[in-house]
Amino acid sequence: MEIIYSDHARKRMRQRGVTELEVRHVLAYSRYVKKSFEGRKLAEGSANGRVIRISFIETENFIKIITVM
Questions:
Q1: How many domains does the chain have?
Q2: Which of 50, 14, 37, 48 minimizes the C-alpha distance to 5?
Q3: Residue 22, domain extent
């Protein structure tokens, strides 16, 4: 499935030193994924010894990353 990153997500990833590989890892091996607001989901997981949270929208064809915390 294609992963699309919003400009905001890319900015936050740069600020926080999070790579696309870490985002993919958290999405694949989340501790949890829960519903958020406006159809979004929130995933939390670990990558390289730190906790990463990802806000995203999932459709049949793609996942759009809104922000990375």
A1: 1
A2: 14
A3: 2-68
Name the amino acid, one letter, at 11.
K
Does the reported pTM lie above 0.85? yes
Q: Using one digit for the tens of pLDDT, what is the confidence trace for 10-62?
A: 999 999 999 999 999 999 999 999 999 999 999 999 999 999 999 999 999 99
What pLDDT sits at residue 1?
A: 82
**24: domain CATH number?**
3.10.450.530
